[in-house]
Amino acid sequence: MYAQEALDRAADIDKKIKSGTAGKLAGMVVGLKDVLCYKDHPIQGGSKILDGFVSQFTATAVQRLLDEDAIIIGRQNCDEFAMGSSNENSAFGPALNPFDTTRVPGGSSGGSAVAVAADLCQVSLGSDTGGSVRQPAAFCGIIGLKPTYSRISRYGLIAYGSSFDCIGIFSKSVDDIALVLTVIAGSDEYDSTVSRTEAPEYTTSLFKEKKISVCYIRDTVESDALQPEIREAIQEAIEQLRALGHTIEAIDFPLLRYTLPTYYILATAEASSNLSRYDGVRYGHRSPETTDLESLYKKTRHEGFGKEVQRRILLGTFVLSSSYYDAYYTKAQKVRRIIRDKTKEILQRYDFMLMPTAPTTAFRLGEHTGNPLEMYLADIYSVQANVAGVPAISFPYGKDKKGLPIGIQALANDFEESKLLSLARLLTKK
Ligand code: GLN
After folding, report:
1. How far does the centroid of ligand 1 lie from the alpha carbon of residue 288, in Å?
2. Which residues are marked as active site?
3. What are the residue ranges spanned by the domains of the chain?
4. What is the pLDDT at residue 209?
5. What is the pLDDT of residue 207?
6. Which residues of 139-153 are buried (b: 16+ CB within 10 A; e: fewer)?
7. CATH 3.40.50.300 fits 2-254+337-427, yes or no
């Protein structure tokens, strides 16, 4: 369905270009992660439970792309309900890393990163709840931006952890990311959590003259868990900035060890609530073998959800249960606030916080599937931006010995996306 539609739209947009009426994104080819609604097109969030479901409406971000004459080329594979770091939790099987097809592309927005890396589209829209845009961007050698929480409407984005979920943008070009962000950011009457701070025309050309100040958390660079070539890459980036006359300082951030547990407690709690809507009554799959309402729920959810999603629902339900609510959920909320405050305080003192996007380059298919905790550790550096709500970008910075791309990440304060895009322009190294 997408192939013919894309050709028809292209022909229409050609006419508009000739008559001088084309939109800002005329002809830009865009792919959508399988969590973004596009009216009359199937959507499944990588899950069997949404088999046969067709979107009833179009997400605001997607509508804004269409209004500016982008061409939507298809929907892209991802981990089920965006839960995962390798794309291996998709009901469709994983997308493969274009640099080495025995390796994962990262996740959850794996298909979206691969499609851009393989030049199937210029831009993909993904979602980043704990790193799902930045980590696959790093594994596939492209740029991935997670904007400030609330910058882009979540209307029409399948919910995972609503207080973390952000639509993010993949491309090889920072200018295309800036343009797309300019088009899709900003307030929306369908999502009351969207910021009313006006969205500017995003730019990538700050810092031509200006000197910047950058910090990095000592532990993130010095940790033994970090692949040595990634450490060398970060050190080289630091030297490069120093040589350009910018200020770089190491800082301590003792809260780092709490960011991953905080994220996994809160994100699973929110997921257990958000995913309760898939009950076999309203959407997609319904088990044919049910005898009463309770068995309808149980069988449908048992058959429809994959193992990891079931694990997250159980974890989330556990931390929200009345006996454990205060010990886990309430406590994690408090810790989140402290992490957010401290992170923002640092980002007021420095323009950027620099860190690895992930502790390793792309790992092998199946390497971490037997051990969920190992898989969660792939997000150790990416979740801080989501816990704090601040924007972050991953950009390529060379390759490891195996020829796999290395990604470096920068965080900035709320609404400083132009700074991040400009830094990515300054530092990106293929
Ligand atoms: N890997 C993280 C998780 O599984 C982040 C996923 C995401 O950002 N959607 O929760």
Report:
1. 31
2. 33, 108, 132
3. 2-254+337-427
4. 78
5. 82
6. bbbbbbbbbbbbbbb
7. no
